[in-house]
Amino acid sequence: MPNTSSPPKVNTAERFDSKDNRSQNALSATQRSCPCRIRLASAADTHDIVQFVRRNLLHHEPLLRSLNVREISAGEPLLEYIRQQLRESFTLLAMGTGPTSGRIVGMAISRRSCSWDGKHLIERADRTRCDQLRKLLYIWSIVESEPNLHQHFCTRCLFEIAFLATAVESQRQGIGLHLALHSLQLARDLGFRFARMNCTCEYSSRVATKAGLECHWTVAYHHLVDSTKQPVVHPDPPHTHIKVHAMALFSPGGCPLNPHAGN
To answer: What is the Cα–Cα distance from 236 to 234, expressed in whole angstroms?
Structure first.
């Protein structure tokens, strides 16, 4: 079980550079093929990360697009929520090389997932006036609570890859998988024993599977209904289900499990 207080300080800046030969062999294939390098984000990156989210997540993530969260009334409060998450997160950035050198081409915002997070999301939703954002928070609360992963793994705290996104112009190059694998290695270095990834679209679910996380829970979008029994959201196919993936990061003997086992 990971320490639920602040994680130990570890020097991981070099470890998460994709050109560092000390990374695990399981990452080597994606390192050779992925046109980016991975680094830890700092406080100075907050503005650029928020702008990246504005351009690539709000407008293109299927659930957010279906709820029309990109509208100013919902978009700005969501961006503020992400700013709050960044202050307590473990964020990795994929930085472009060649023509995209110096630009963020992908990001993975990870955090602690605690058993009470679903309740906190409901409380936040109840205080939210924007209808689109309130629906989104309620959906997130269901996804956090219903799989019962904390009970399943007998732990109070898991590592969660909360937001995984690739720049629209840089997709289909393996950047998402690259970030997921490095995030799982970061989780191990921080002392977490279990990891989860809530996938609200089919593409992120495929990435989670390739990274070695198993699907533990799923729900069809058309089963998420309001008081009139009408579906709350209608993401376009193939994004028909929400899937929650999870995995143990170490074997019972304490050895790191292969993060690329899904391939």
So the answer is: 6
